[in-house]
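INFO  loader      accepted 1 record
INFO  loader      residues=164
INFO  predictor   begin
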Amino acid sequence: MATDTPDAMPFWRAKTLEQMNAAEWESLCDGCGRCCLVKLEDEDSGRIFATDVGCRLFDAGTCRCRDYPNRSTIVPDCVTLTPQEVRSLPWLPPTCGYRLVAEGRDLPWWHPLVSGDPETVVAAGISVRGRVHAAEDEIDEEDLVERVVNWPLRWPKAARTPRG
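INFO  predictor   done
INFO  writer      dumping tokens
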């Protein structure tokens, strides 16, 4: 838990996204990898579809970016999250810590800031570990529509109930 004393309110409840320092901001990421999956947008409806294809910099084993500091240079359409972006991006997963805090909700039991263990993200079925089919540079763009999946934009059943 990210508190100094048992009675202290965790920073994500005490601060707005804008008030967080860089370390606090980065720690809101649970490391699930859902935001690093390629998304498609229906041009007519604006509806977002997630795929099981990862960004070319995404390491499917660790669920981390292979070059996080330089990601926006290497992948120009990589979005660097800001409080404003978090509040406006329709494709952020419903489980995203940034999105939850922006919506005034608490972090769930499986979030590493709550559990103290990054593996609870995997146990809760939030992580994309083992579910990424390919990297975007390994699949033809026209084949992406065949890789559309629903699970990245949903809460897994295992994530809904705290484990004891």
